[in-house]
Here is the input.
Amino acid sequence: MIDQNLKILVTGAGGQLGQEIKSLSEVYNRPNWSFADSKALDITDERQVKDYIGAYTPEVIINCAAYTAVDAAESDPNGAFAVNVSGIQNLTAYAGKALIIHISTDFVFDGNSFVAYKETDETHPIGAYGKTKMEGEKLLQHITDNHIIIRTSWLYGSFGKNFMKTMLHLADSRSELSVVADQVGTPTYTGDLALAIIRILEQDQVERGIYHFSNEGVASWYDFAHAIFDMAGKNIKLIPIKSEAYPTPAKRPHFSVLDKTKIKKAIHMEIPHWRDSLEVALKKHLR
Ligand SMILES: NC(=O)C1=CN([C@@H]2O[C@H](COP(=O)(O)OP(=O)(O)OC[C@H]3O[C@@H](n4cnc5c(N)ncnc54)[C@H](OP(=O)(O)O)[C@@H]3O)[C@@H](O)[C@H]2O)C=CC1
Ligand SMILES: Cc1cn([C@H]2C[C@H](O)[C@@H](COP(=O)(O)OP(=O)(O)O[C@H]3O[C@@H](C)C(=O)[C@@H](O)[C@H]3O)O2)c(=O)[nH]c1=O
Here is the structure.
């Protein structure tokens, strides 16, 4: 059980993870949460951060606010820096003794590994988004010990924009689709990540530091798309391609599977395989 009196602020509450946490908090009947979308709280605006945190005085801040447009970040690195780095500076400046649970990404790695990345592995992002996310992590680690950084990957669910929803949308207008098969990682259902965050809050004292969380298993984007179409009953010709055949402004890591051993031990959670979670997510989304 989470202490009912614990005051929890969720930033970026209008995004896919923020909305998922909100919907889960309603199921769990948690009254003492404050959900701030970017209109209610712009984390790049120091004054707003000071006033909001000053008025609410949270004991936990779950930072779901981020600049997540991977391609746009290449031509707008300052925009990405403002949210993903300066935003953290602002939050930590007024957080006081609050625990900061910050969400980060598999894109802090370069993808040259052949084995699942551990929390202690060296970061070396290959794009502007990943670079700002890495800088945000480092800043947070430098400023306060009272943090939990959760690196996750390939988030999807019913809320906001994501690959699953893009594929379902494209299936309505296209008879065939090419999807990259040489970028390998693990899709993560926002419902599972939100639950893991609730588990962290329920434990008395989860050790501070970095944790990796994704669903279990390994997939390419092609595999993921294939499973989406299979499970959703969409009849579309899917063609596996190399990354070079789908040029994008940002380079993506070829391998970004995360090792989840540490978080599974810390919160005693069995993590579902990505295929099982995709089935759950699609059932919920398409009902
Ligand atoms: N999406 C993914 O595949 C993955 C995401 N992550 C990380 O998980 C976290 C959550 O991501 P996700 O929910 O998918 O992202 P979304 O893009 O769905 O949500 C991010 C939210 O942050 C808000 N935001 C942007 N700028 C600001 C700002 N200046 N102040 C306050 N809020 C702001 C956005 O609001 P608005 O739309 O109004 O600008 C949006 O609602 C992020 O840290 C992301 O880096 C990690 C791995 C994979
Ligand atoms: C739409 C589409 C994408 N793709 C490719 C492009 C890309 O390599 C891959 C995924 O595309 P997307 O642009 O949806 O996803 P992308 O923005 O790369 O997703 C990333 O977002 C950030 C925020 C993260 O932190 C990462 O973990 C990861 O989830 O699929 C195709 O091959 N065919 C298609 O039709």
In short: The chain has one domain: 8-162+187-216+257-272. The chain has a mean pLDDT of 96.
